[in-house]
């Protein structure tokens, strides 16, 4: 029979298109990614709970109260799974694809309904779109558009188009002919016949089509995760390929929640959108009688208001956040936020090293993006420059085909491991089997079975066709092909039962770290020579990123290191790769600096580098400031500081019990007297770093003639007779009453108690408008750094004597951390320094304290060495 | 001058329609054409409708009457022939102008009402006005008026599916009346209603017609309905009009035996009037008698025969038939009445529509007459 392969032509055609129609693909790419990015910016930008609220309001509007509540719970669940971002990415993909699909499908359906010839032409095309396995166009999609959003979207659009077209055509055709005739008989133009009669009547069917489109889009978007489309699909794909059942189930449930939400909402949309649907709903409600409230749904206007309010809140929070996204810049910040795209094949060593690099690059201030891909798409995207580098190129054999095809568009960034080897292994408790030759005649012992991996794997081919023959094991042993994960579970089972077993393995593999295995020698060299693992970058990567390239080129892992890292990741499982890497790095102190030495010299390590320090603080401004400052310093010195926020009571208790190592904000002898008295025997007073503190009233410095409390007398008109206070429960407020009496101000001024933050905003407002104001403040406080406030003198000493702020530590701190103790003992901060540090942290916003402190530290060169000197 | 005039209308479905018309004109049989895959739905139909007349087209299903109706407003384009409305050739108009004519001058009432389920009763009634581009306020006003005319006051806010069949058709009627079109096409409009309601609707249509004086083309397969409503009736068979005339013409002088068999079951006593069976020769005698006795019962020419039975049951005397002015124009006696009811309708070839068209039939009809 002659052979016929149209596939070759298709391949040629794809090549041709790639070279000649690049602009078209660029255009499509721009449109699709633009649409996706736009939607994702909206969905992904907000606070999850607020967005969940918006979804809930929509559900309430469309389906009633119960649906609203369930939707909210569902979305919160997704957030609890920590899959919120992925879910929103998926939702954005679905919406982007659905919008484009509907824009194309509905008009096409209408056209087909009106013209038989169009209908006849469209039908086979739809059949192809619907039945052609998605991978078939997913892969050329990758050729044209590289990995990521676009091919996923494209595949999704193609896959979800048919029901949209079909249902539209059906819906229009289904409209009673007599009605269309009636419309025509009254002189309706074809256009209006469509808009006034056919379309509204077909709408329920069209909406069913839209529903199908969205559901198919969702299912396809998940599959598109294979082509690197972001979102839940990527997670599911990762979970499936890495046999992480937990992650798989969680992402699966998230997909189901999204699916149910989309299905129910688009299903119910019909009721709101089409006149017939509204009519049916009204009828149903009327039938319900007294149970009507169960079906209560807010009007469109009400629902819209709800959505808008929530959206504004979400948007506002987002806006407030965006001001403070500046990256902390330390001297280890080599990347300065530069983005690097990494890809990896879900092979154990690929996962391990990719996440290792991700963690290290993040520590060095880069923004690495990690994407799991199959080998083909990975190399394609490297060749196209979409991916910057990958760490798991097996050369010269395994990945030879890709290297041959794309080698000219990539560059090797050094080999970091090698040689690899293929082998058969047995548990070490199987005595007397050290080499392949030893297997002969022991078939009975192993049940005549060699546990293999995927039958498509190259190793299996070599094993069956060469190794068994060379050692004469054919007939005696049968190679059972299954999968890598089944092989591993078989191995695990056997080891638990201490049964003999022969498995097909390769090095490096984490199994060697997890189990005590013997690699069987291959004296005849039948398995062939091993390969080396290379880092491979896109063309020009080394030129664009000389530092990273030099790190990569100098990167090397020993088998023990690699397998222990793999094992750690394997043990952590399900989405915790990076955490596992962090733990592993903790066990290998100094590894990061060796792997990615910061230019300009290594960080000076403290003597106790690697030691974990537990720091506690309670949310007072100077406590937050100094704690995060020390966290940064200690990290630079190689310590592992941990920071925990506690209330003063529990904090002192924890210190006394030795659970905490030190805290920086002990106000002594007055404010924290009670704690100190209670625990002083079990605490160490490291020393005071600031003082004295003081309480005071303050006014802006443009208020002339008021420098002391005495000057306030008779000027109440100027200040509206008002002193802006803080929380009425604060000790200072109590003392203030006495102060006012002492100076005879108690009749003239009224103290308005509010809160510290309102006091500060009152100051802010007054300073902006240049109005006089008296505020209740204390030192140290950042209000003095931010606003031109002057403290009013207290000649009579009514405020009493100030405290000093001490560092207190657990008992024995001196012995445990001699170096740190020395630093803290000499720790001193001026009011200006502290004020500016607090102000920096204040303007950096919540959750960014550490970065803000780092920023401050960087802007005060020499400070670190002054505070934590090392020789 | 007639308002509506159909001239030699043909409608042929299928391939090579034009050739089919030529062959039909040359005398080819309809069945022969059907064997070749073309269907001649309407063949050489011509008629005129006067202003204010109800013109009924009657025929069994498949006789081509609905097709004929749809050619009158251009929903179907005639394969050959012309439709003249107020002297304007509708078949020559471009699509846009034809739509204008349909929107303003011709409206239609459908067999299964064809109400838009996604519009309220009021919106349905206002549909034609919406197409005309009448502003909302005015069209609501006029639609409300039309609904009132059709007897649906107070149902404006209801939905079609909440109404009974009869009421739905009233909405259909109101929709047609609201546009103020002069020509009303009614396609088996009452056929889907049950008999009592159908009768009500017929009465209402006649009642409305007295004041509105529309020109109406009414399609039906029900001879009694045709007789009741039609000022003139066209009987269709196999795509051809076989007879056009008043109800009486058709009853008394059926043009073919087909028509004759059709009218067999008609209650002749309700259709035939005293005027149609009176003895005009005795008019003078009657006049003399009337003047002399002053007692003899009188009836008008329009009185249906059914109403003569009661007087004859009590008196043997002939009855005097007078015209509208009261002038005696003839007499009816018992024998004449019984004879008229007993009479087999005589097929009258002269009454057949353009004799040239149905030559074969004419000869056959002649045979029937000979037998009669």
TrEMBL record, chain A:
One of the record's GO cellular component terms: ATP-binding cassette (ABC) transporter complex
Principal cellular location given in the protein's record: membrane
Gene Ontology molecular-function annotations: amine transmembrane transporter activity; carnitine transmembrane transporter activity
Domain of life: Bacteria
Biased segments, Basic and acidic residues type: 846-871
Domain ABC transmembrane type-1: 87-266
PANTHER family associated with the record: GLYCINE BETAINE/PROLINE BETAINE TRANSPORT SYSTEM PERMEASE PROTEIN PROW, GLYCINE BETAINE_PROLINE BETAINE TRANSPORT SYSTEM PERMEASE PROTEIN PROW
Spans traversing the lipid bilayer: 49-78, 90-114, 134-159, 201-224, 236-262, 300-320
GO biological process, one term: choline transport
Localization (cell): Cell membrane; Membrane
Gene3D superfamilies in the cross-refs: Dipeptide-binding Protein, Domain 3, Glycine betaine-binding periplasmic protein, domain 2, MetI-like
Name under which the protein is recorded: ABC transporter permease subunit
Family named by the database record: In the C-terminal section; belongs to the OsmX family. Belongs to the binding-protein-dependent transport system permease family.
Membrane-protein topology: Multi-pass membrane protein
Pfam families recorded: BPD_transp_1 (PF00528), OpuAC (PF04069)
Keyword annotations from UniProtKB, A to Z: Cell membrane, Membrane, Transmembrane, Transmembrane helix, Transport
Region named Disordered: 838-871
UniProtKB/TrEMBL annotation, chain B:
Example of a GO MF term: ATP binding
Residue span(s) of domain CBS: 289-349
Record has Transmembrane helix as a keyword: no
Domain ABC transporter stretches: 4-263
GO cellular component, as recorded: membrane
Recorded family membership: Belongs to the ABC transporter superfamily.
Designated name of the protein: Glycine betaine/L-proline ABC transporter ATP-binding protein
